[in-house]
């Protein structure tokens, strides 16, 4: 079995519990996606509870899109708690670069060494301080323009960095992997990117070592891309696409995922 | 007409206004479920407004899943306001037992005598202090393991206690009713349990006396189970299941609900 | 091309960025609707970020349904920031009239001259202080009962006032336009009204002058009504209706919208 298939099989076999601290727009789709892929979601934001739960859960997602000051305080406790417990955590730096509070927050959290960072190209550049970020949550930069910055982020933080776009690029120390799948309707469904961050966390929870993390991140992207290709066969508009895509996340076998998407190493 | 049919007919005839104070993940599905079953939702969390509205609405739901300190303050005002106005209120003790803030909150609220408590087995045990609760929002205990504790909660608080599982068990003074329906895809749709708590509140709003409350709680569970059976005929994956299930909540007649589910008294 | 078609074409051609400060129930459907109609959503509530972003975005929506004190503080900064930057902003006074905090908030914000107010009849009356508002978020007044009050609100604030109902009525200085479309299942889908407020903001973003604002507001209502008519052809229950309606928002051409709905000037 390939590493991608091993990861997806592992998630379904072990139902990792993913602690999600995410923005106000996407909790429901994030939870439904985690359930569909075989993981278990738990959204816990109160600082006192988040600090405890980050050490109990299998993995943690911190998505700095629209959140409250109270949630931000919780994130500042949960990231070090996850790190101290040896649990992988994922940073999704939504709209970082252009907005001051979340930009400072995301940069401050890097010291706790996320296992992965998932973002669009503008957010990767914004997190590193290389550009002012995108237009709200939209990328205004091309994926390839962020690869060198992603490489530097890996070197500085130890994280696998995944850049989302028509072709996703996963970057870590010495490796660059490109995953091509999905469909143009996918960015018209809110939360597909945010839920990908949560699924990356689920996949990292079943990685057996730090060396397996790169492939775990690739596996999450492969599953999302494959489901997008399947959904596009049956839908020409975003709401029907959303339903079919969520169904495909649940029903696709690991072997089907690998047949559907194109995964290339640079 | 049976008590179940009377309750479901009563909800559709009177459109009870259900004040929902719920977690960040499920407001949208909760509102859509209440509209589908014939009730009207209103989510109001600000303490000053929640205290007023709890006395105006037909019933109140307090779900202690992921919420803010501000919302918790509102819940501490709304529960006594509902009680003072003679309006039934429902407690959904999400993940109580393992997480300290919500566990204290839920236990403190019991003094205001909820009309019903709806939870999974681990949460019932966690609320009573009998166990440490489940794994996040997942039950790790079997329904039957919580029946004796549910009986004690009834005795202590006056609430009807409903334990959700493959077969739901509704417990009150001297009665134990088992409702079998639903489908294994239902727990893969986030919010079906939380929305059941809201529907219990809607059904309690049309109960004519405290003696009718047990049957009102059973009616909500019967409707949910019946809709799950109908949805499973047309779906093999969770997103399509969710759509068909919500549609069935709206279209099933009370007579069809009673034909579909199995309701047994111990 | 008519003004309605020009507006809808303009939204799709320019992808206006709509800053949404909305209630806890509807962020996901609001974002999906904006994406479906060709706009781009960004939910940003933190006061420090909201004040900045309101001057950057193409338009701003302020929906005073269930929100936190922190979000309210952000709204009090964002409305004047949008006004100062010459960006149109829309007020959706959810349940205003009956609930004190949001009623004061909505009235205070009027001094910043919203480009449009979108509400049901009870909320229009509640905002103006003419009645106590509806029952939670439900209108208890007929649309026509609010037209005179809407006219006065226009005179006082400069806003186009849109009253939602079986026939929507759009009121501005010297004009009253009635838009008939939609379907009785539409109010059973939570957030269709709130998402209409966001779509009004998107349409206002492409209005070339204040004189064009009335028609921009009509265009948003026409699109929603047309999509409701299309969805009703394929659905008899609310969840399927919701999917088809969202799809239709994306696929209907401006010419089809105009053929489907009835638009009449008084």
Task: Summarize the structure in words.
The structure is a homotrimer of 266-residue chains. With 266 residues, chain A is an alpha/beta fold. Chain A has a single domain (3-265), classed as Ribokinase (UDP-N-acetylmuramoyl-L-alanine:D-glutamate ligase, 3-Layer(aba) Sandwich), CATH 3.40.1190.20. The first copy, chain A, contains eleven helices and nine strands. Chain A has helices at 3-14, 27-37, 47-56, 69-84, 100-109, 121-128, 147-157, 192-205, 213-234, 238-251, 254-260, and strands spanning 17-21, 40-43, 59-63, 89-92, 116-120, 160-164, 167-172, 175-180, 262-265. Chain A has a nine-stranded mixed beta sheet, with helices on both faces. In chain A, strand 1 (17-21), helix 2 (27-37) and strand 2 (40-43) form a beta-alpha-beta unit. In chain A, helix 3 (47-56) runs parallel beside helix 4 (69-84). The longest helix of chain A has 22 residues, at 213-234. The model of chain A has no long low-confidence stretch (mean pLDDT 96). Chain A binds chain B through residues 17, 19, 24, 27-28, 31-32, 35-36, 40-46, 48-49, 52-53, 56-57, 68, 70, 242-248, 250-251, and chain B through 23-26, 28-29, 65-69, 95, 98-102, 135-138, 187-191, 236-240, 242-243.
Produce the secondary structure layout:
3 copies of one chain form a homotrimer.
Chain A: H1 3-14, E1 17-21, H2 27-37, E2 40-43, H3 47-56, E3 59-63, H4 69-84, E4 89-92, H5 100-109, E5 116-120, H6 121-128, H7 147-157, E6 160-164, E7 167-172, E8 175-180, H8 192-205, H9 213-234, H10 238-251, H11 254-260, E9 262-265
Helix pairs in contact in A: 1-8, 1-9, 1-11, 2-8, 2-10, 3-4, 6-7, 8-9, 9-10, 9-11
